[in-house]
């Protein structure tokens, strides 16, 4: 039974700082985006903290295994975004956005990744998941450990040429393996503990690293491998990266793993769950009750919060409303601006999205270190 | 056959400038939003160009005829937003956002407005729409001219008290009256020319003004009446305000109408339609073709543009994509930032929204007079 698997090979988006003299004089200036010449351009950079991306002959350089992305049709879509964003976050620890440019993965093809994500078998010797042992019992079968594998390429620029100078491979491990005993049958679950999944992924990481080193051009670049633990399908947040390794040029086996104490939680805190910092949870709940008073009826105020250890690193607040008039949305957004500043944790980046059944109505955000929220009300002529 | 009609009575949202000493010392400071005391607060102000709104005892002061809003279940939803926003725009010509505070309409009740929007008849002597003449022929029947009526209240602040100091009434006239000959039957259309609709609405405006003057507290305030012509249901933009009158305290009949040369168009320009300025249309089409090249497939790039006379006053660009990975969205958004700056008309406010079937993915905007677009990619943990 072949399963559809999440797979996104992310390619490296070139980073390029206008304030950075040695790069900005190049023809790959971000502001030339859209030129139709045959050359390579960069996308331009929104802010210093993001990588720029590669455009070739006017087209975005998409991932070699891009097609696999679309076979992700099930499960928890939060995993997808948090896996991709988390890979960027880990990469930024090693590949500075001031020096490196991002390109979507160009070295692993769709079929390679599909085979790697499948079970090992006679016909698929490269499978990273264990052979089937024939059992369909939740506790006795060999589960699918590795759910997704993604490549990101990091380039540097010299003499108007982009050179591959680093790579990040993300390996996503299941916390729950969902499986069926018969086609179209009921879905069963094999739970995988954090320790078990992590150990399996670290073993697979050695295999992956050795395979990558055999590919042309990948022998002498640093390759970062990061391990992600997927959230279960009923989770309202995605999973988290639990460890990463920086593998210097030439090394074909992981030397050292660095643990990552990342955690995503939802507010209000779900029963059976807890927040690393109860102050944040009560700040949110004060905010929530202020906001819920504003209109006669408001359907929901929830948030995703992200922690590194016990430190809050960011929050996404979602507010769902019934239909409101445009002036009500404008007033509500102004009110949120002052209320969020008053009640929500200070100094971390926070987004607030106000949606109705018609889609996003308004949006507020505050960057790290800022005091005031900026806002936008979506409009129409 | 009673029809559901658009009706939103907009109430006045108090405007209040932090930079404005005489107001900011008051207890109604916007930053106190959310206080649960019995008093009146303001929502706080996002920017100088918006009115602040009124909060009473922690709740937003919703419109007295708010319920009617929800009976709007058909037609062109663009009309709804553009009618409400347009009323604010007209109001700002007379009631400065620095001095006035906005409150949703408190003087016209749901039943009053429902009766006014209905046909005149023995049982409904206040109906602003003509008596039925019995005909069901598209060209012979008396159409429903007035589709919506909305009230906005404008308050000033003195000694910590808000006083009604102005009002705007919006009257929306159909360009097409959609009607049925039998319940659940086919929909027929009676077209109403601009001249005919405008003349009818101006006559109705006199009636409305006289009625408002009889209400307690409304005799001696300026009442602005603005006439809006609805777009047809198949339009991809809303209608436009065509005229407004400023009626000084005490006047019970409109003295003078000011024409408004507003026009909303869609880009690419639809067949049978034209843009007031062909440069803008070709700027947009250059932008569109650059953007469409970026990804292997991109479903649509359209825009709503708004003109005052032949002068472009703003643009909303909508880009719909298939599912993309998070890194693709980040790169695409960076690319849009540079491409929009290069190709789209300069110095007017422009929004760009990137959506997929999963909802809004990213968003860019540039305020009037700015050069660079700022951007936000929607994210998840």
UniProtKB/TrEMBL annotation, chains A, B:
Residues 121-140 have a biased composition (Polar residues). Pfam families: CamS. Residues 28-55, 121-142 are annotated as: Disordered. Transmembrane segments: none annotated. Keywords: Signal. InterPro entries: CamS (IPR011426). This is CamS family sex pheromone protein. Residues 1-18 form the signal peptide.
């Amino acid at each position: 039974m072949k399963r559809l698997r999440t797979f996104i090979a992310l390619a490296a988006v070139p980073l390029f700082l206008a304030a950075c003299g040695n790069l900005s004089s190049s023809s790959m200036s971000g502001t030339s985006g859209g030129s139709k010449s045959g050359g390579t351009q960069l996308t331009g950079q929104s802010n210093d903290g993001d990588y720029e991306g590669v455009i070739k002959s006017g087209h975005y350089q998409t991932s070699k295994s891009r097609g696999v992305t679309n076979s992700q049709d099930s499960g928890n879509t939060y995993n997808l975004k948090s896996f991709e964003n988390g890979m960027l976050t880990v990469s930024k620890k090693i590949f500075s956005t001031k020096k490196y440019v991002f390109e979507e993965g160009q070295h692993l093809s769709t079929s390679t990744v599909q085979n790697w994500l499948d079970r090992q078998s006679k016909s698929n010797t490269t499978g990273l998941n264990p052979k089937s042992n024939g059992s369909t019992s939740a506790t006795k079968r060999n589960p699918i450990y590795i759910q997704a594998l993604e490549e990101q390429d990091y380039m540097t620029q010299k003499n108007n040429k982009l050179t591959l100078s680093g790579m990040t491979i993300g390996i996503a491990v299941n916390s729950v393996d969902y499986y069926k005993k018969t086609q179209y049958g009921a879905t069963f679950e094999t739970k995988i503990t954090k320790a078990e999944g992590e150990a399996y992924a670290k073993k697979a990481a050695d295999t992956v690293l050795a395979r990558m080193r055999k590919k042309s051009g990948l022998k002498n670049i640093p390759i970062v491998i990061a391990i992600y633990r997927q959230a279960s399908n009923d989770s309202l947040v995605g999973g988290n990266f639990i460890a990463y390794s920086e593998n210097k040029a030439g090394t074909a086996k992981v030397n050292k793993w660095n643990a990552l104490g990342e955690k995503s939680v939802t507010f209000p805190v779900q029963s059976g769950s807890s927040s690393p910092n109860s102050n944040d949870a009560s700040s949110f709940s004060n905010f929530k009750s202020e906001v819920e008073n504003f209109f006669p009826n408001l359907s929901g105020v929830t948030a995703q919060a992200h922690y590194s250890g016990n430190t809050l690193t960011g929050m996404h607040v979602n507010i769902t409303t019934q239909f409101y008039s445009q002036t009500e949305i404008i007033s509500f957004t102004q009110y949120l601006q002052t209320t969020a500043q008053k009640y929500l944790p200070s100094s971390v980046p926070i987004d607030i999205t106000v949606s109705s059944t018609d889609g996003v109505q308004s949006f507020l955000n505050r960057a790290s270190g800022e005091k005031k929220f900026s806002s936008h009300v979506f409009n129409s002529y």
